[in-house]
Description:
Blueprint: E1 2-5, E2 18-21, H1 27-34, E3 39-42, H2 52-73, E4 76-82, H3 106-125, E5 129-134, E6 136-137, H4 146-149, E7 150-151, H5 153-165, E8 171-176, H6 190-193, H7 215-218, H8 223-226
Parallel strand pairs: 1-2, 3-4, 4-5, 5-8, 6-7
The chain binds D-galactaro-1,5-lactone (15L).
Amino acid sequence: xxxxxxxxxxxxxxxxxxxxxxxxxxxxxxxxxxxxxxxxxxxxxxxxxxxxxxxxxxxxxxxxxxxxxxxxxxxxxxxxxxxxxxxxxxxxxxxxxxxxxxxxxxxxxxxxxxxxxxxxxxxxxxxxxxxxxxxxxxxxxxxxxxxxxxxxxxxxxxxxxxxxxxxxxxxxxxxxxxxxxxxxxxxxxxxxxxxxxxxxxxxxxxxxxxxxxxxxxxxxxxxxxxxxxxxxxxxxx
Length: 237
Ligand code: 15L
């Protein structure tokens, strides 16, 4: 197992692992890292609501470098996509894997580009991808929105393991959230990898009742939708 990041690894290395500092902009370094690997778990990115310039390098060009490395090594990619690819759907709308993209930010748009890259490399080169549309992965939910979007660390860990170990997965999209009663997302490809989440946000429901005010409370993407929102025809405030 080869680990890589732009920052030094903060903990003792796990047994059998090596670590190499690298930037997603370094195409050759990424290709070397992927040599003889059967899978790439790609969680590197500008990972929050950034400007176009902030996401451009790591999330667009860098993602291309990852997919080129996967093509050369014939490796499967497990990609950290995001709920922000569908962020401007109403929270109350039931969503399946094939619902329309409605990115809520340049970050969400960059993850949508990642899902498109996965499709292109499957159709043209046979590169396999498991796309994890991650909700809110943190120790526990902290607002009403996360009663639907929360993903526990344990559920994420098992999801990545199953994504790696499944026999053949040409192109799979998975709603990466725990068993949350408040979630309206359904019909993904989890059966292809045999994953079922075990944890649930439900026990925090009494203390997190009531949606956030305004735009953030209306849409899947929450604060990402509200940031810089300027529709002149919006009456909600
Ligand atoms: C994400 O995709 C981000 O990486 C993370 O920082 C959170 O904002 C999360 O979504 C979320 O929607 O809660």
